[in-house]
Design brief:
By secondary structure, the protein is an alpha/beta fold. It has nine helices and five strands, in the order H-H-H-E-H-E-H-E-H-H-H-H-E-E. It has one domain (about 5-205): Carbonic anhydrase (Beta-carbonic Anhydrase, Chain A). It has a five-stranded mixed β-sheet, sandwiched between helices. The structure holds zinc ion (ZN).
Length: about 210
């Protein structure tokens, strides 16, 4: 990728997705070029932001979107919350991204080995109690576990639950009136993704 390519922000969802894939590929190859921020770049960005993607990811310290996608300042509009769950503040932030930032692409990104999903599995299948506010968070994940095989190997169950949680969040967002309206106009695209802690690879879901 040349500097010139970097200077042209993606205009469509497909271009944005291609940019993310390319950035993640550089990251996985160990060839990330996350830029040292220059004063001119900061001065330019202080005038406004024009991110090309909105990412709802997990707070986990091992999944920083800018590094995973080898992206610079001003490129990604990021929401991070344990278990990448929805909630009133999250929905408001997503709506802001849609209405005011007009990012063409939205990504819900979960990750393998997610502690929040693991806790939701323990709560749902083993009845393990959690502190009150954590329990409220887990309630956002637990419905995604309904169709899973609780007798599966723990690692397989967790992996399936992580994906089910992402897919459920994507479905919930697609069902909102705002999403229906925007999708109808072909204004944006919403995709799920799973980050692999071991390989660093992001797998985009169909
Ligand atoms: Zn997590």
């Amino acid at each position: 990728m040349t500097t010139d390519d970097k200077d042209l922000p993606p205009q469509t969802a497909d271009e944005a997705l291609a940019r993310l894939r390319a950035g993640n590929a550089r990251f996985v190859r160990g060839e990330a070029c996350f830029p040292t921020v220059q004063k001119e770049v900061l001065a330019d960005l202080s005038k406004g932001q024009q991110p090309y993607v909105t990412i709802l990811g997990c707070s986990d310290s091992r999944v920083p979107p800018e590094l995973v996608f080898d992206a610079g300042f001003g490129e990604l509009f990021v929401i991070r919350v344990a278990g990448n769950v929805l909630g009133p503040s999250i929905m408001g932030t997503l709506q802001y991204a849609a209405l005011h930032l007009h990012t063409p692409l939205f990504v819900v990104m979960g990750h393998e080995g997610c502690g929040a999903v693991k806790a939701a599995i323990a709560s749902r299948f083993d009845g393990s109690p959690q502190a009150g506010r954590i329990e409220i968070l887990l309630e956002q994940i637990i419905p995604a576990l309904d169709d899973l095989d609780s007798q599966a190997e723990p690692a397989d169950l967790l992996s399936a639950a992580v994906e089910a949680n992402v897919r459920r969040t994507v479905r919930e967002l697609l069902a909102t009136p705002e999403a229906q309206a925007h999708m109808g106009e072909g204004k944006f695209r919403l995709v799920g993704a799973i980050y692999d802690l071991e390989t660093g690879l992001v797998r985009f879901l169909d």
